[in-house]
């Protein structure tokens, strides 16, 4: 057996391994590089192998740094199976088209800049439709079943406890009269993550490929996290503020609600009751279509939970689990910086920051304080639409004075020049 490391080496994104054994070539994961522009440009580089020589692929979980280049594989002619758990397949069916949509948006913005420079337009890494088409080659399997790929290769997917559907993959390869076992952990979960099982213990192997994204971090207990979260939110709302929560579409929000539900049953102090009531009555703006779709996948895979967790999960995934839940569908459909609310989802972070930063007074303050670099850093970090486009729409809708429009456009010119 030969294993070639082709991604997530000296960094934590772009997972991609080529395994050769028993006359077959197969991949474990094919993730997207994420981070700065230099990192992400690696996504456009040719694969280090002939796509047409790959016999099958094993996918540990749905996070984009492990699955995000599968549509690129498909686009380049790969048509053999992608073997993974059903929950991972279900999540990829919404996450990969969402990624394709982002690729289309980002290349559109980059091409506007390239055209100004007299350069040719570039195609997206892949489109949303490419990702939708890719789902035809996904083959779902169950946990804990030994699956025969061919007479000399067997695999088993074990619960990794990292996210819904995540798996530690055991691989047995028979060749040259002996059997070799390799284990790919993917990303491993912790032992006390709400709604997820603890990672499966693997007894033995010949080769272990373990990812250690959080290898050097000590985690606080989940009940402490929930208390901390409740304190921050209630204190902010009591002061009339807004809480902006950058949350993954899958997992984090459900985990917090699960722990809050447990706290509600375990604590009966008046102070706690007051904080809890403040939280549950606040309007919540969910600004992530992907998160809403992911919740449906969560519902459809309840068989992965024990009976006690199923009962709690049924409550926390309901859209009306909180008193006031609003689905935001447009960048400018609600002035969320002017209301008392807590907000979840990355697009909400973008919107909240924009409303906070794009007010004429706020922008002038930033200008006076020489903090334009913070806006540029936020744009790079959040990968939002080019500020110029958003400013123009904001200014048009808000009928901002002409002198302010001039200030904004002058700054946009400085940003473009800095790039």
Features:
6-stranded mixed β-sheet, 5-stranded mixed β-sheet, alpha/beta, globular, 419 residues, single chain, 15 helices
As a percent range, the share of strand residues is: 15-25%
Sheet of most strands: 6 strands, mixed
Low-confidence stretches: 319-368, 370-405
Taking Cα atoms only, what radius of gyration do you get, to the nearest Å? 24 Å
User: Helix fraction?
Assistant: 40-55%
What's the SSE pattern? EEEHEHHEHHEEEEEEHEHHEHHEEHHHHH
SS field, number of helical segments: 15
Q: Largest sheet, order of strands side by side?
A: 1-2-3-4-5-6
N→C terminal distance = 46 Å
Q: What overall form do the CA principal axes indicate?
A: globular
Give the overall average pLDDT: 75
- Helix-and-strand structural type: alpha/beta
Give the arrangement of secondary structure elements.
Elements (H helix, E strand, L loop, with lengths): L1 E4 L10 E6 L2 E7 L6 H4 L15 E3 L5 H4 L2 H6 L6 E4 H31 L11 H7 L3 E4 L4 E5 L2 E7 L7 E9 L2 E7 L22 E3 L12 H17 L3 E4 L6 H15 L3 H12 L1 E4 L2 H12 L6 H10 L7 E4 L13 E4 L1 H13 L1 H9 L3 H11 L4 H12 L3 H17 L1
Parallel strand pairs: 3-4, 4-5, 5-6, 10-11, 12-15, 13-14, 13-15
Antiparallel strand pairs: 1-2, 2-3, 7-8, 8-9, 9-10
Helix pairs in contact: 4-5, 4-9, 6-7, 6-8, 14-15
Nutshell version of this structure?
This protein has 419 residues and is an alpha/beta fold. The protein has 15 helices and 15 strands. It has helices spanning 37-40, 64-67, 70-75, 86-116, 128-134, 222-238, 252-266, 270-281, 289-300, 307-316, 346-358, 360-368, 372-382, 387-398, 402-418, and strands at residues 2-5, 16-21, 24-30, 56-58, 82-85, 138-141, 146-150, 153-159, 167-175, 178-184, 207-209, 242-245, 283-286, 324-327, 341-344.
């Amino acid at each position: 057996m030969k294993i070639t490391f082709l991604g997530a080496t000296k960094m934590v994104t772009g997972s991609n391994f080529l395994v050769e054994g028993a006359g077959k070539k197969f991949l474990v994961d094919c993730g997207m590089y994420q981070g700065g522009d230099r990192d992400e440009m690696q996504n456009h580089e040719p694969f280090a192998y002939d796509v047409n020589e790959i016999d099958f692929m094993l996918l540990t979980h749905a996070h984009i740094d492990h699955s995000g280049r599968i549509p690129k594989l498909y686009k380049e002619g790969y048509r053999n199976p992608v073997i993974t758990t059903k929950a991972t397949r279900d999540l990829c069916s919404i996450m990969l088209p969402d990624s394709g949509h982002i690729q289309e948006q980002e290349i559109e913005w980059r091409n506007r800049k390239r055209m100004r420079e007299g350069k040719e337009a570039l195609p997206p890494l892949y489109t949303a439709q490419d990702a939708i088409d890719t789902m035809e080659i996904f083959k779902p399997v169950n946990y804990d079943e030994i699956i025969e790929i061919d007479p000399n290769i067997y695999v088993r997917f074990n619960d990794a406890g990292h996210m819904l559907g995540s798996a530690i993959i055991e691989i047995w390869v028979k060749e040259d009269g002996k059997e070799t076992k390799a284990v790919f952990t993917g990303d491993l979960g912790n032992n006390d993550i709400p709604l997820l099982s603890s990672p499966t213990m693997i007894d033995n192997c010949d080769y272990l490929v373990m990812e250690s994204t959080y290898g050097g971090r000590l985690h606080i207990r989940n009940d402490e996290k929930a208390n901390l979260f409740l304190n921050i939110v209630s204190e902010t709302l009591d002061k009339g503020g807004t809480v902006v929560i950058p949350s993954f579409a899958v997992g984090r929000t459900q985990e917090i609600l699960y722990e809050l539900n447990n706290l509600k049953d375990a604590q009966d102090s008046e102070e706690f009751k007051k904080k809890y009531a403040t939280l549950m009555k606040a309007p919540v703006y969910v600004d992530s279509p992907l998160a809403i779709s992911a919740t449906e996948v969560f519902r459809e895979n309840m068989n992965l939970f024990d009976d006690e967790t199923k009962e709690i999960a049924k409550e926390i995934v309901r859209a009306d689990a909180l008193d006031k839940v609003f689905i935001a569908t447009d960048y400018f459909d609600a002035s969320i910086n002017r209301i008392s609310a807590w907000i979840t989802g990355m697009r909400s972070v973008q919107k909240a920051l924009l409303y906070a930063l794009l007010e004429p007074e706020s922008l002038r303050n930033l200008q006076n304080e020489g903090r334009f670099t913070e806006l540029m850093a936020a744009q790079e970090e959040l990968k939002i639409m080019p500020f110029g486009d958003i400013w123009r729409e904001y200014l048009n809708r808000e009928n901002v004075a002409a002198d302010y429009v001039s200030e904004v456009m002058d700054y946009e010119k400085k940003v473009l020049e800095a790039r």
